[in-house]
Amino acid sequence: MEEKILEMLRESDEYVSGEKMSKKLNISRAAIWKHINNLREIGYDIKSVTNHGYHLMRESPDTLIGAEIYQYLKTDFIARNVEYYEKTDSTNTRAKKNHDMPDGTLFIAEIQREGRGRQQKEWLSPKETGIWMSLLLKPNTEPASISAITLIAGLAVCKGLPCEAKIKWPNDVIIGTKKVAGILTEMSAEADAVHYVVCGIGINVNMTAFTGELEDKATSIYIETGKTFKRARIVACIMNEFETLYKDFLEHGLTNIINDYKENCATIGREIRVIYNNREITGTAVSVDNDGSLIVDSGGEQIKVRSGEVSVRGIYGYV
Ligand code: BTN
Known about the structure:
- It is elongated and about 80 Å long.
- By secondary structure, it is α+β, with helices and mostly antiparallel strands.
- Strand 11 (279-288) and strand 12 (294-298) form a beta hairpin.
- It is built from 9 helices and 14 strands.
- The strands form 3 sheets. It has a 7-stranded mixed beta sheet, sandwiched between helices. The chain has a 5-stranded antiparallel beta sheet with strand order 13-12-11-10-14. Strands 1-2 form a two-stranded antiparallel ribbon.
- Bound molecules: biotin.
- Biotin is lined by residues 90-92, 112, 115-118, 121, 123, 125, 132-134, 171-172, 182-184, 200-202.
- Residues 90-92, 112, 115-118, 121, 123, 125, 132-134, 171-172, 182-184, 200-202 line the site of biotin.
């Protein structure tokens, strides 16, 4: 409802009366007042004048509510429904618990108390400086192909960010040699059918510094560019990219996307160490296959590494 109220206020240069809003939105004037106060609490400067109504002052704050995202969105169904939380446990958890919501619903939060990364690691999700979001997807594909969604999300992030970034296969996005974003894809499926997929994306946007063990590994868009960015616009840019790639994937698998992916993949050509299935291999990453597997040349033998529970480290650093 806040979104609809904001839309009405944005559309008008003049005061909008409580009565007009209450009629259009079919709720009481007291309810309008309550929603206006909710918007004020998250930073909107809304002036109210007796007998005139409400007026939106100044530029909108950097929040991630649907109304902020929708204005830049060009998609058919991705992120057309936004579930916004000022604070939650984890947007992946929210998406899983609400998997009966429409395909493409985006769950997004200002703070996650229990943000999760891969391999049971914690994902730091402080207030209002990053993008913590999860897409609920209902693809009609077989479970084995779902790891490709992580790759698609990585490519969408890479293309949607307002600065040059690359992918560290399979699920990190990096600027230079440091991680700016991570992806955690989870699914519910049976042997040959996917019930739903949750693709969680965490992006460091406006953090000014990282400390401790993250200092050498993590970065933010602000640290790299010296500029702060409106997060809602970045979200929409990524969603726009994601939908194009995802629709193509649903029809043709990774066939049409893979070259674009490889061009944006920083792992190819690197000396790496891969740990998967209790196995460790070292070698040169030579390519990414049409099914999304990394091809590693290890002492002349070409080994295909499927994404999933793998850990990839550069021999000479994080990348
Ligand atoms: C990783 O690199 O280990 C993956 C990090 C994924 C973090 C995102 S933030 C939004 C979503 N909710 C979570 O709890 N995790 C993902």
